[in-house]
Task: structure prediction
Amino acid sequence: MRRGRFWCGAVAALLTVMAWPASAETAAMAPVASGGERVDPALVQTPASLRWRVTRTAWTESDERAFGEFVTAIGESNCRTFDECLKGPWNIYRASDPKGMFFYADCADLPYALRAYFAWKNGLPFSYVSAVAPIGASNDLRYSRYGNYAVRRVDVVPQADGAFPNARTVLNTVNNFVSSAMYRFSPDVSRGELFDFYPVKIQRGSIRPGTVIYDPNGHVAVVYKVDDEGRIRFIDTHPDNTLTRGSYGKRFVRASAPMGAGFKNWRPMKLAGAKQGKDGTWVGGRVVLAKDSEISDWSDEQFFGTESPRPAQWRAGSFVHNGVALDYYDYVRQALAIGDVDYDPVAETRLMVRELCDDLHYRVQAVDVAVAAGLHRQPQPSRLPDNIYGTHGDWETYSTPSRDARLKTSFVELRDTVTRFIEMAEAGDPKLSYEGADIRRDLQAAYEQEAGACNISYTASNGEARALTFEEARARVFDFSFDPYHCPERRWGARDEAELATCPDGRDKTDWYHAQQRLRNQIERTYDVRMGFSLAELRAGKPGSGVDAPPGTDVMLALGAAEGDSVIATAGE
Result:
């Protein structure tokens, strides 16, 4: 069945009230079909390999650790799609999956898909929010200004002896019902059902493998590792089913409390009122979630800061560690580290460049998927989607505006971090772990070495592999087209005539590419702006169509390197 996909969520998930889909498989799961009629379990049999048998009534600490290990194994693997991740040797449960099963998850689905799959394989109860409504007016539940409340929940438990839920149906239903709207809630929301997650205290052991990271710009990731120095590593998925990896940083924005940004853990749950069937599995009952007051590491400090009294405005919140006020992102890292964090500027710079190199390789995958689908051969639509960051259809699946915005943010963050290290060295900051004689020279050498080792290759319109250096990618990142209707050369910001010679785009697409430059210049994702611009409106610079100039990303310039000092090949700026 072809599903209509939305950015990090499905069509059905955007509805305030959702009906349970009518099908034989779904009836076996409920076992109530649409209209409320009861279905005789004897008439609807779930295949043995797909039966969700509940053999235990509660998630224990041991289950949570095992779930974290399951997530870590995927994160530390080399799998590149969600389907591949669940079918590879890093998934210890794969042997029991029926043949022909396909696994899909976009970013909002990922936490639910991982949790549901693990629960199925371990005989655990599972429950999830299947409908939300906005607090206040909202045109899109994924970006409601004041957050959402939960309207309805679904418990995945047998309702009669032998009426086992169908795991395939559960996973498919999660794909279609869950969106990033399910993560957008205030820490103190008081109406509706309990949400599946709770805001967690920023401390080691609480933010752990399996913790969810929510970006209110419409993206969701799952933590798979927290290292000894407090770095948070995450996995995330995309509408094309690719799975990528990264480190937590400013690409995940903070926002007002009702938007619910930040770290969330799954609520403890248990099955109450169930009875054991003839085969020893549990039947009936309902899933009960722990209340906020029953959760020891529930905390709203990530929204309001660590200090009392709480500030009137969330932006004024301060984060203090051992008497020292820190930037929020520094605080997160320090709070999760074993001991004090001392920044090794050379090592940190090397790591950031390596991760950006990984991000560029991930983008190669995304563009290749769009090219393979032939989007660049289709005519350019007469208008952009209503919002380029949150839409549906081919644009949602194959465009890259949100992915590109996060990539650009990371390039800007690299430049800013290098600048900060220089300032710390000049100020004699004891938090800087550097014993060299010339920090600018050493940072330049580290940057050049790592950047020089990063080689990207994209497939041009004629099938030819085109090499792209890290510095070339950095220099033209704001020229990368997010538009899936553009040729791959434009998707990679080609500038000179020789590289563009193979691009089949005609005058119309070329005009659209140039008119979209102001949108490419911005790194903020504006989901509350109507963007159904025509070519003429983009050319006129209509409000909401971007900014005139991009922020700087040139690390060598920040290091004060003289012209000609760098040995890295560049395309110029």
